[in-house]
Amino acid sequence: MFIFYFLFSWNLAASPSVIAGAEAEMKSVSVMEGDSVTLNPDLSKIQGMVLLLWRFGEKGSTIAQIDGNDILYEDYEVFRGRLRLDQTGSLTITNVRTNHSGLYKAEVSHNSGTSYIMFRVTVYESPSVIAGAETELKSVSVTDGDPVTLHVPQIQGDELIVWRFGDEGKLIAKADIETKSSSLYDETDERFRDRLQLNHQTGSLTITNTRTTDSGEYKVKISSNKQTLYKRFTVTVSAVPVPDSGFSGAAVTGIVIGVLLLAVAVAGVMYYYRRPITTNLPNQTCKYYS
């Protein structure tokens, strides 16, 4: 009888389907894609625990656990390489995506029973406008009409890359390297239409056929499972320079007038010497004397 009761109790604790958690407090957490989020359980419920299971989704799939002093992670593809669990029970998810939105449950088992802590996580897509983090500013100069490439540090393959432009931090390009999704360009901004190229291998952004209106500050946020990096560029697009003759405007005007007058004089002289010449000789009478 005791063995049956023990097995029945163990199955209730381990089975995801019974973790209703209706009586547990629900905490709401919001985070932007590419950032990290940490779920901190109530420490008073962690003390003296013998087992902690972190579950995800309505089905309650186990994604990480603390069993005594051992920290284990399930081979869950959606969270692969993203989870950090410490002995306090805090679960950190790095480089989050929208598909990480959902219900997270911490199932804490003690000798005296089991308690539950629940979090509702919402991951938002990168907003169209946001202020960028302060970081080192690199200057880049280019001539009007030429292309310019803004280079970023070497990427590993799991990054979310977000490029922004201007003081207001307007979103102009985004790519998820991990999912190999197509680059997203903001086509509502006519300024860059069909002139942006984001390299999936390097994360670098190229602006083709640059214009003076492309001058300004560019910011990139590179989020990976290990870290988040920021880079800033100030781009200056200069108009095509006009050759400098070395003369002032008045001098150039005087030279032009002088050349025109000289041309007229030369034309007059040439006309004078090349005109037809008619010679009328008077009738002469020759007289001979004997």
UniProtKB/TrEMBL annotation:
<feature type="domain" description="Ig-like">
    <location>
        <begin position="16"/>
        <end position="122"/>
    </location>
</feature>
<feature type="transmembrane region" description="Helical">
    <location>
        <begin position="247"/>
        <end position="273"/>
    </location>
</feature>
<dbReference type="InterPro" id="IPR013106">
    <property type="entry name" value="Ig_V-set"/>
</dbReference>
<keyword id="KW-0812">Transmembrane</keyword>
<dbReference type="InterPro" id="IPR036179">
    <property type="entry name" value="Ig-like_dom_sf"/>
</dbReference>
<protein>
    <submittedName>
        <fullName>Uncharacterized protein LOC113092898</fullName>
    </submittedName>
</protein>
<dbReference type="InterPro" id="IPR013783">
    <property type="entry name" value="Ig-like_fold"/>
</dbReference>
<dbReference type="InterPro" id="IPR003599">
    <property type="entry name" value="Ig_sub"/>
</dbReference>
<keyword id="KW-1133">Transmembrane helix</keyword>
<dbReference type="InterPro" id="IPR007110">
    <property type="entry name" value="Ig-like_dom"/>
</dbReference>
<keyword id="KW-0472">Membrane</keyword>
<dbReference type="Pfam" id="PF07686">
    <property type="entry name" value="V-set"/>
</dbReference>
<feature type="signal peptide">
    <location>
        <begin position="1"/>
        <end position="24"/>
    </location>
</feature>
<keyword id="KW-0732">Signal</keyword>
